[in-house]
């Protein structure tokens, strides 16, 4: 099976070379995450952003390899100084700060969500929540682990890096789980 974005890009741009389509999909995915990272509710030490929603969507839309590549491209562009991280942040300081674990988790989450989407789990309303739940758990596992190292306390990492976000992330998962099956219906 394939995922939605490669299906549409092949359908609407059949004469474009595969490598160029893949490059454009990966860059577009990274830019979507960068765009939604600017939707921010400042909290310390970790803000609430639209990034996680974008990561889940990009993984589901692009598939495992392209999704992970999009997250690597996103992180690389932010590391090079583009204002891609939450609130327009950029640079290596962000990659070693309190949110570094979440950023690393984006790569694994996009891959896992994409892998499950390649098996068709995002196409049905009955199964579509599973890929997004798995992706969210990966993001939290990486993010909270790193935050506990930075803060020197696992309980503080849970308090500041998980508890303020779980309701919002549940809403994001449900939205993503509703959007993807509907999108596939329109494609068919």
Task: Describe the structure concisely.
The chain is built from 9 helices and 2 strands, in the order H-H-E-E-H-H-H-H-H-H-H.
Structural overview:
The chain has 188 residues and is an all-alpha fold. The protein has a single domain (4-187), classed as Arp2/3 complex 21 kDa subunit ARPC3, CATH 1.10.1760.20. The chain is 71% helix and 2% strand. The protein has helices at 4-12, 18-37, 51-62, 64-79, 92-96, 100-118, 129-151, 154-161, 166-187; strands spanning 40-41, 48-49. It has a two-stranded antiparallel sheet. The two termini are 14 Å apart. The model has no long low-confidence stretch (mean pLDDT 92).
User: What Rg do the Cα atoms give?
Assistant: 16 Å
User: Would you report the number of β strands?
Assistant: 2
What is the architecture at the second tier of CATH? Orthogonal Bundle
Q: Give the SSE string.
A: HHEEHHHHHHH
CATH topology: Arp2/3 complex 21 kDa subunit ARPC3
CATH class: Mainly Alpha
Distance between the termini: 14 Å
**Unreliable parts:** none
Number of structurally distinct domains: 1
- The residue fraction in helices comes out at over 70%
Q: What class do helices, strands and sheet pairing give? A: mainly alpha
Q: Output mean pLDDT.
A: 92
Largest sheet: 2 strands, antiparallel
What global shape is seen?
globular
Sheet with most strands: strand arrangement = 1-2
């Amino acid at each position: 099976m394939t995922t939605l974005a490669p299906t549409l890009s092949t359908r609407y741009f059949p004469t474009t070379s595969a490598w160029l389509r893949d490059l454009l999909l990966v860059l577009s995915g990274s830019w979507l995450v960068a765009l939604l990272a600017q939707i921010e509710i400042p909290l310390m030490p970790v803000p609430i952003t639209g990034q996680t929603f974008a990561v889940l969507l990009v993984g589901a839309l692009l598939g495992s390899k392209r999704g992970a590549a999009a997250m690597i491209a996103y992180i690389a562009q932010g590391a090079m100084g583009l204002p891609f991280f939450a609130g327009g942040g950029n640079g290596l300081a962000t990659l070693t700060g309190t949110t570094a674990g979440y950023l690393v988790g984006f790569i694994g989450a996009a891959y896992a969500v994409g892998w499950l989407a390649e098996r068709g789990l995002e196409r049905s309303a009955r199964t579509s929540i599973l890929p997004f739940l798995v992706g969210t758990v990966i993001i939290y596992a990486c993010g909270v682990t790193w935050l506990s190292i930075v803060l020197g306390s696992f309980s503080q990492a849970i308090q500041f890096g998980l508890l303020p976000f779980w309701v919002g992330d549940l809403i994001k998962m449900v939205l993503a789980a509703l959007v993807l099956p509907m999108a596939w219906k329109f494609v068919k």
